[in-house]
Structures are given as structure tokens and as C-alpha cells.
Amino acid sequence: MSLPHPSHFLAAGQSAEVFRLEQGLVLKLFHDGVEAGIVEREYALMQTVQATGLPVAHAVEQREVGGRRGIVYVEMDGPDLLAYLRRHPWRWRWALDQMAQLQWEIQAQRLPLLRSRKALLAEDIEGATLSDRVRAAAVERLDQLVEGDSLSHGDLHPANLIVTSQGLAVIDWSRAARAAPPADVVRSEMLMRFGPGQAGGWWEERVRDAATRHYVDRYCTLADMAPEALAAWRPLVALAWMRHRGPARDEAFAAYVEAALTTAGLPSLAD
User: Fold this and answer.
1) By C-alpha distance, which of 233, 223, 71, 92 is closest to 158?
2) Which residues form the Aminoglycoside phosphotransferase domain (predicted)?
3) Of 133, 171, 203, 234, which one has the greatest count of Cβ atoms within 10 A?
């Protein structure tokens, strides 16, 4: 099968491009060099997640196109939450409350056979550019934390939420794993505050920070989660993210990491 026509292109990410197909379907076409096992794992993972009844894009089949591996999904009809908020900024409170609610519902699912988020974090901490002292202390602390078997999306932020006629739906489950809920919440916190796609204006930074505080506060109220639970995971998730994180608000992120390390009683990055 030949590659889709460029006019059918919808979006692109680090690992794949998305094209619109016929009959309400889309093709997530992985880039050359992405291992077949990664594609197969995502497809198998989606079968598991779909069975929970959560609002997700259903994976229909695997398909090879132009020598590249892909997964065919049912198209979600609607804008992503970030685009929606650009057009309806007065609905920010509703949007963030719905995001917190959906994340809580995701984590209510128990999937003990999924891969371990702790193992993934440990691998990224080992591969990040850190001093031996910080790395060793972080890995030791990570080993002490209890993981559990809650479903974790691993990349939940407004651009991965679709506003449909039935409410919010979640896309891009490629980073999903079993995890302690606070690990997923602080990952979302970091993506919302320090993730890519920022214009760099001071007003945007303030909006992102305020929106993130509202989302985290709302989630903690729903889940009855204490701030100490987030503080335990925050430095470890941050150090792991440093392995792959792109540039965005670097000074603010560095200050965030240092504060998280200090609160958790871990060594400074300067050590």
C-alpha cells in the first residue's frame, strides 16, 4: 500500500505522523526506525485500554504502508482541548476540571500486567545527564516508593485530550503503564508548565502556571491526595524527563527541579 496523499495529513509527533483515511478512520504511521515491537506493544496496549470502557480512540488494525508500520484508529471527532481553549478561553475552569476528573477515572482502572512506570523512570534516570551522586540517590529513593497497579497514561495534557460531543476523550497511549497515581499527576504538571509549544511570553507562563495549579488542586480534591504524595514523586519524574526533554522555560524548570529535590531531601543538581 502506498503512502497517504499529503493532503490527508493531520498531525505529527516524535514517533509518528497521522493521516485521515476513509470511513471515519485515521492512520498513525510510525517513522522509519521505530521498532516493530513498539508498534505491536501500542496496538496490544490499546486492546487492553479499550476493554476498560474509558473514552479512547479505538485501534482497528495494524497496517504496513510504504514500508512503514502503522495502526489504524477510529477518528475522534472534535478539536483537542488546547485548540478548544484557544477558541473558548472562558471555559478554562470546565476544561481543567474535566481533565482532572478523567485522569482520576483512568487511574481507577487496575491493570497489574502492564509494564512498570518505576522501571521506565529508573531507565530514564540512568540515561539522563546527572552526577553519579544525584543518580544513585534518585534510583535508591525510587526503589523505596510503592507503585501499585493503577493505569497511568504517562503523557496526559490538553493536546492529548479531544473534545467530543460526549465529553473529553484521550488519545496517544504510547507511554501508558501501571503506576502510582501521583507519578502521573506530576508528569502532567510538568508537561503543562514546561512542555513544548510555548511562545515564551511572560503572560503565557503565568497562564500555564495558574492553570496547572487549578488542575492539580482539583485532582487532589477528587482523589483525596495529600501534597506529600506528589512531593515524593516530583523530583524523580523530573529527573527522568531530563533525559528527553526539549528546551522550554529552562530556567524555571531548573528552579522547579531544585525545589523538588530539596523538599524530598535529595542532593542538588549542583552537587
Assistant:
1) 92
2) 10-191
3) 234
Threshold 0.70, pTM exceeds: yes
Sign of CA dihedral 20, 25, 26, 29: negative
pLDDT along the chain (271 residues), means of 10: 82 88 93 92 94 95 93 93 94 96 97 96 97 97 96 95 94 94 97 79 86 97 97 98 88 95 96 78
Beta bridge partners of 177: 152
Distance of CA 182 to the CA centre of its chain: 13
How many Cβ atoms sit within 10 Å of the Cβ of residue 4?
Answer: 20
Q: Please calculate the CA angle 260-262-267 and round it to the nearest 5 degrees.
A: 105
| φ, ψ of residue 68 in degrees (nearest 5) | -115, 150
* DSSP conformation class of 72: E
Q: Which of 21, 112, 9 is nearest to 61 (CA)?
A: 21
- 180/237 Cα distance (integer angstroms): 12
Burial class (CB in 10 A: 0-12, 13-18, 19+), 32: exposed
User: Nearest to residue 147, comparing CAs of 172, 174, 114?
Assistant: 114
